[in-house]
Design goal:
The protein is of the alpha+beta class. The protein has three helices and 24 strands. The strands form seven sheets. The protein has a six-stranded mixed sheet, with no helix packed on it. Strand 8 and strand 9 form a beta hairpin. It starts with a helix and ends in a 23-residue tail after the last helix.
Length: 331
């Protein structure tokens, strides 16, 4: 046999062998475990192009397709979807009755029809527990901040429902939920958004609820039920400011009185301390004479007393009480 003839024979055998390759269906998972209320994806992939195919369960053709056109049985129309690109099947909101063996049949462009099976096991969901509503911002500012409320829960969650002050949430362009309703978003909160927000989580076995109170703040005040009330931080700031102003005013008044001579004479028979020198002296006299001079005082003490009052002032007939309201005052 010549070399050319031998090469032609080998090529012919290769083409024949390639054309006779067996068509197969690759199954991603032969068994799927899903909680009731969840979704089951029967993921498959053909080894070559397919003309048509179908999914069957308990004698019912759940879905079928020819080329790029697919149809679903009426009993599954609201919860089944077939993907014509690879023949996979999506089954939504599964129940216990959906448990069993599903068979997929495919007719390839070249080759013989082939089948594969996938087993679905649906389990009863456990109770919903630990439901809570969590906020991303506990002190949102009016017309500035966005509040995102997250509804968290443990267990199998089938539905979430939102309420504000026990009324269903009315969604709009500013207030809306995520596709799974696990998050409620309020853009640029205002005083009308103040209230109690509740999220009810449920499945076919149980339900639970969580809630939180949303308070909206203006710059320094909290808006409760539409009215501005002073926030705790603002109250503390105001009190500290008033206290500081009071202290400053008291000191200023005392200094002015000192400068103008408005400080009252310390009572007789009492100890007092000089503002300027800090020297403590004792007044032993109970009276002053008619001419306004102080008796029984040293020369320096008399001078100190006269320096407090106007030098031209005289005290006529003035009698000092034995006890004074200043007796307990320490300077």
């Amino acid at each position: 046999m010549s070399g050319l003839a031998f090469a032609a024979l080998v090529l012919c055998l290769h083409i024949t062998a390639g054309g006779s390759q067996q068509f197969t269906i690759i199954v991603e998972h032969s068994q799927i475990n899903v909680t009731a209320g969840g979704e089951a994806l029967f993921s498959v992939r053909p080894s070559s192009s397919v003309n048509s195919g179908s999914w069957n369960f308990n004698g019912i053709t759940v879905a079928q397709w020819i080329g790029q056109t697919g149809t679903v049985d009426n009993s599954y129309s609201s919860r089944a979807e077939v993907f014509t690109s690879n023949g996979s099947l999506l089954l939504k909101s599964v129940s216990m009755s959906d448990s069993g063996e599903y068979r997929v049949d495919m007719v390839p462009t070249n080759g013989s029809q082939t089948s594969a099976t996938v087993t679905l096991r649906v389990t009863e969901p456990g109770p919903v527990t630990g439901v809570a509503v969590v906020t991303n911002n506990s002190t949102p500012l009016e017309n500035l901040d966005t509040v995102a409320l997250s509804c968290v829960a443990s267990g199998s969650v089938q539905t979430r429902t939102w309420f504000k002050d026990n009324q269903p949430i009315q969604e709009n362009g500013r207030i809306f939920t995520s596709p799974d309703r696990a998050k409620l978003t309020i853009i640029r909160v205002n005083r009308n958004d103040v209230g109690t927000y509740k999220c009810i989580v449920s499945n076919s076995f149980s339900s639970g609820a969580g809630e939180t109170y949303v308070e909206v703040y203006c710059k320094y005040t909290a808006k409760t039920d539409g009215n501005c009330t002073l926030g705790s931080g603002a109250i503390v700031g105001i009190l500290l400011g008033l206290l500081g102003m009071g202290l400053i005013g008291g000191v200023n008044g005392w200094l002015i009185a000192m400068k103008s001579g408005g400080i009252n004479d310390p009572p007789q028979s009492q100890d007092y301390t000089s503002v300027n020198s800090g020297r403590k002296s004792t007044l032993d006299t109970n009276t002053v004479n008619a001419s306004g001079t102080y008796e029984n005082l040293s020369r320096n003490e008399q001078g100190a007393r006269h320096n407090v009052e106007d030098g031209n002032s005289t005290y006529t007939g003035l009698v000092l009480e034995d006890r004074s309201v200043y007796s307990d005052l320490k300077r």
